[in-house]
Amino acid sequence: MATDPLDELLELENKFYKEGYDLGVQDGTRKGQIEGRLFGLEKAFEKYTAMGRLHGRSVVWAGRMPPAASEAEFTSTTQPSLQQDVEAGKTAPDSLPQVHHNPRRLEKHLRTLYALTEPASLSTENSEDAVSDFDDRLKRAEGKIKIIERSVGEETRFDGGSTTAIATGGGSLSKGGQHGALKGDGGIEDASVLQARH
């Protein structure tokens, strides 16, 4: 039985669809790898920038510790690299106010924050374990920052890449003595913004 010459014309649409699909897959694979790499580099840069900002804040706070706490305790118990960073950052000793709130406890938090954000210990590998470890350290460091901010009495606002530290006055506990619920902190249990109707 002879083939119909019009069969080839009837399959023309499927042939062009298949050809276009194959070309699209090849092009998408190549461009997807480039786009994925650029996206990965952008996100990694954002994460490492955030980690660097947290590390810098730990060094500044360590430099603001009272002289008895920062010199005696840090030199004897802390890693030498933290002491070197603190010493390198001390250009004008009286340029920042000293931190006087519970120096021993604050020193413990600062030491932990410094260990979490230390650049030499951060992995730059692109494996699942390294990425999840980095994300975990970043979350823990952000939590430590909040604890230190509350104890020091500062609040940090990020707006478009710039950081602004605002002194909040130490943050007293709200009525009922609930831990973590500070007056005027804008949290869900903050009732200081409500005005009574008379």
Mean pLDDT across every amino acid position: 76
Q: Based on CA inertia axes, which overall geometry fits?
A: elongated
What structural category do the secondary elements indicate?
mainly alpha
Please give the share of residues in helix: 55-70%
The whole-angstrom Rg is 28 Å
Main beta sheet, described?
A: 2 strands, antiparallel
Strand order of the largest sheet: 1-2
- Along the chain, the helix and strand elements come as HHHHHHEE
Annotation field: number of helices: 6
Report on this structure:
The protein is mainly alpha-helical. 59% of the residues lie in helices and 6% in strands. The chain contains six helices and two strands, in the order ααααααββ. It has helices spanning 7-10, 12-63, 67-77, 80-89, 103-117, 128-152; strands spanning 154-159, 162-167. A two-stranded antiparallel sheet has the order 1-2. Helix 2 runs parallel beside helix 6 (128-152) and helix 5 (103-117) packs antiparallel against helix 6.
